[in-house]
Each structure stands twice: as structure tokens, then as C-alpha cells.
Amino acid sequence: MTDQQNTAAGEDDSAPQFSLQRIYVRDLSFEAPKSPAIFRQQWEPSVGLDLNTRQKALEADFHEVVLTLSVTVKNGDEVAFIAEVQQAGIFLIKNLDDASMSHTLGAFCPNILFPYAREALDSLVTRGSFPALMLAPVNFDALYAQELQRMQEAGETPTVQ
After folding, report:
1. DSSP-assigned states of every residue in 2-47
2. Which of 14, 72, 97, 129 could hold 48 in an S-S bridge, CB 3.0 to 4.6 Å?
3. pLDDT tens digits for 27-67?
């Protein structure tokens, strides 16, 4: 009778489960190689953004996902600053099929991490006395779909670590 009540109450052990355990900054760096001279120039920046994700299986059903944002801002031909953040999270993910697990780790988790990474970068850049970056939102679902398409064309199969 108790097992039936637990199952009816939504405590089915085979049901998919997702839980955020922790969000943290794994690595943070900032370099302004032309300071202080860069502050005396006319400010006409160009922004280059590199974005990367990686995931690693931890013990049991825990997974670490790391979102890396690297920004290089140039003023003319000179590098004004380089900033990078590795925003990470630990997620408990249970009872998903391989395709759902791959999508969760490759798109859903980075969507959760991105606002934290963006805020960390903005804070870092303003502490360097530069204007905040205000990075636009990123569609990780579209990036994930593009990566799947690329892998299919290359004959690769997505793997969950």
C-alpha cells in the first residue's frame, strides 16, 4: 500500500529527474595589455566572442557542465582587453534516454549557466574600467542543433560522458 501511495504521489524512481546542485565560477581571467594608454584613445571597440561548453560525468547521476565565454575587445588594431569566465554547474540528472541526456547537457544546462557567466564577465570588465559588455542572449538549442547537424554530416555520433 505504501509503495502505491509513493508512486501515486509522484515519487516514481524511474521518472526523469533534474536538479541543480551548485553554480560556481571555475576560472576567471582579465588582461588589459595596453592600459593605461588605451583609456586615452577614442573608444571604437570591436568585440569577438568565443563560446564553448563541456561536460563531465561525476559520481552516480551527477554531471558537471562548464560554459566558457572568452571575449577579446579591440580598439582599432590594438587589443583593449581579453576576459574569460568558466561558469560551471553541478546537476543531478537521472532516468533520461541518451538523446534527452545529450540535449540536457548540451543545451539546457548551458542555458541555465549563461546569465551567471554574462554577469561575471560584465562585472570583471567594469572593474577594469571598461564599459559593460551587455552580451546578447544565446540560443543554445539552436547551437546544439547545428552541432548535431555537423556531427551527422561528418558521420560522428554524439556521446554523453
Report:
1. HHHHHHHTT--TTS-EEEEEEEEEEEEEEE-TTTTGGGGS---EEE
2. 72
3. 999 999 999 999 999 999 999 999 999 999 999 899 999 99
The CATH label, of 2.60.120.920, 3.40.50.1580, 3.10.420.10, 3.30.420.40, for the domain at 21-154 is: 3.10.420.10
Confidence (pTM): 0.84
Q: Give the whole-angstrom CA distance, residue 103 versus residue 68.
A: 18
- Residue 5 cell numbers, joined: 501511495
Q: Which three cell numbers stand for residue 13?
A: 524512481
Q: Which amino acid is at 121?
A: L
Q: Beta strand pairing status for 62-75 and 78-94?
A: antiparallel
